[in-house]
Amino acid sequence: MMPNEKRQYDFLGPWWATDGDSGPWEQRFLDKLQSQIGPEHVLYGLPVRIVGSYGGSQELLFEILDGTGRLAVIGVTWEGFEHSFSLPDTTIYPNFEVFKTRRMIPEHDQYLAKKPAHLILIEAAEEGNLDLIRKQVEMGVDIDAFDFPTGTALCAAAENNQIESVKLLIELGADLEKTDDSPMPMTALFKAVSEGHYEMARLLLENKADPNAMFLTRSSTPRNCLEFLKSRKLENTPLYKLLLNHGAELPTYIKLVEKHPEKTTYIVEAVVSAQHFDDAIELTTYLIEKHPSSTLHYQRGVAYDMTNNPMAALSDFDAAIALNAANYQALYSRALVQRKLGRLQACVADLEAAVNVNPSDYISINALAGALLRSEHESTQNLERSCNLATEACKLSDWNDAVCIATLAEAFRKTGNESKAIEMDQKNAELRQRETLL
User: Fold this and answer.
1) Three-state DSSP class for 140?
2) The pLDDT of residue 6
3) How does pLDDT run across 3-16, given as a tens digit for each residue?
4) For 193-221, how does the pLDDT look when each residue is reduced to its tens digit (9 = 90+)?
5) At what angle do helices 344-357 and 362-374 cross, to 10 degrees?
6) What does the alpha-carbon distance between residue 438 and residue 432 come to, in Å, rounded to a whole number?
């Protein structure tokens, strides 16, 4: 087979096929592979192509393009932005059929020996393998064990419309509301609804699945099954009516914190992070009226700032700092508002205070460097200190923050050190290119 000729593979279970194009992502692995394999290794000097991956690229499947049909599985370890191959874990298979039998068929001993027991249960549920489900549960495997992002065996079965798997899991005592351990996870019912599985959803609801089970990710919405369908303009579908008939209601963030008060902090942070600022203002106002705190005032201040209400933001940041003088995030955010309002001295003073409170916060340090660097007023301009602060910010960020490196390049340029400025420009360009490849 020629090196550029492609062969299609049918992948099962958790293994995923790549497109085999050896684009930038694949090429980085190939380059690293070539640099790490010595002359004694079977792959040395042979053209290879990535054709599959497993476990978020923890293992890669290579086709050896030498006409033999051999395949190699290589374990991958991640080290920051770099990738390295764990060669002791390399296994050669004579052809795809042998690989599939040994590594992809659940009944095979080698597969079972390598796979954690709870993952075997989850995959058995996903594939509708009732005998294997019973076997794993009888062996004592936790029926509600989860794997991110799939969830539990029940979630996996619901998502893949395995009706008989779900019936068996419920019979064996599976928890209908249990999922992964994220702050607001997705239940089996949501998995079924998100895939449009009406009969599956009905089965779960008839077995008392909570129609209003809510979750919250950093994208923030939708927050339950009903809102998921509404967000996709599916209000007239049988699934939507089914949920309504079982008592489903459209959620609000206030309802969410009332139902999960122990997760209030996460919910507020997630709403702001998702940039649902009007909702954030409504929610934090409700919470502040009950129990004011520095964190809540800070979060509402961010929401006001992002909705172009700087005076309201300033008032909340003032309140946050009054309640907790060590709230460096509020100090940093108030500094940014001060800068918007043209209050440069107040901006620098707040950034100085933020850095004093948290000397390891490179974001505040970099902002202070920029404020001292770009100010047109002598009282707030200090080029030499700006250069020192920008250098410190880069060090604290392990030279992995493009904004900090850009500030340092600008500082070097303004202090007349053009060669260093060019060096930082090049480092910045390399970092951005690396981020693009990832």
Assistant:
1) coil
2) 46
3) 444 455 666 656 77
4) 999 999 999 999 999 999 988 776 655 56
5) 150
6) 10
Q: Which two tokens stand for residue 326?
A: 């060590």
Q: End-to-end CA distance of the chain, in Å?
A: 30
Q: How far apart are CA 311 and CA 340, in angstroms?
A: 11
> CA-CA distances (angstroms) from residue 199 to 181, 192, 238, 249?
27, 9, 10, 20
Provide the CA 419 distance to its chain's centre, in angstroms.
38
**109, burial (CB in 10 Å: exposed 0-12, middle 13-18, buried 19+):** exposed
By CB neighbour count within 10 A (0-12 exposed, 13-18 middle, 19+ buried), where does 167 fall?
middle
Write down the architecture of domain 116-251 according to CATH: Alpha Horseshoe (1.25)
Residue 73: what are its φ and ψ, rounded to 5°? -105, 125
CA distance 126 to 107: 15
pLDDT band at 2 (very low <50, low <70, confident <90, very high): very low
Give dist(CA 408, CA 387) in Å, integer. Answer: 6
Whether CATH 3.40.50.2000 fits 275-437:
no
**If you average pLDDT over residues 355-380, what whole number do you get?**
89
**pTM, entire model:** 0.61
